Amino acid sequence: MEHSPKKILVIDDDLLFTAILDVRLRNEGFEVLSCQTGEEGFEQYQRWKPDLTLLDIRLPSMSGHEVMERIKTLDPVAKVILITAFAESTSSEAEIEKGATSFYDKSLSAEKLIILVKSALSLKTS
Asked: CA 40 → CA 12, 13, 68, 123, distances in Å?
């Protein structure tokens, strides 16, 4: 029996980061959709119904916090990993209390993010 790949929605306005992440996630067997704005990301969340959302905190026009709040209102058990290049400006514990599944600092390795993704989706890490 063949399983369909897990779907990951990436919402981040950093095009280089999303391009690299897209390749890494696809190489791990995930289906990936990327968006650059909170509005587009939330619309795609509703249409695509991903298994996991990777969400930048700092987005133009609508913050990642607002996007996560909308996602959680729509689906309280949605899995969301917040990502940022500005880790010092926020507390990962506070973000998790607000409903984030996990928190990722972009200064960490991409491998660390893959481990977080697999953990959030309860997949084996190698």
From this structure: 11, 11, 13, 28
Output the six-digit token pair for 61: 């026009």
Q: Which CATH number fits domain 7-120: 3.40.50.1580, 3.30.300.30, 3.90.78.10, 3.40.50.2300?
A: 3.40.50.2300
Most confident of 21-30, 60-69, 78-87: 21-30
Q: How many whole angstroms separate alpha carbon 55 and alpha carbon 10? A: 6
**pTM (2 d.p.):** 0.87
Rg over alpha carbons for the chain, rounded to the nearest Å, is: 13
Helix then strand then coil, in percent of the chain rounded to 5, is 45, 20, 35
| Residue ranges per structural domain of the chain | 7-120
d(CA 97, CA 76): 13
Residue pair 81/100 in contact (Cβ under 8 Å)? The answer is yes
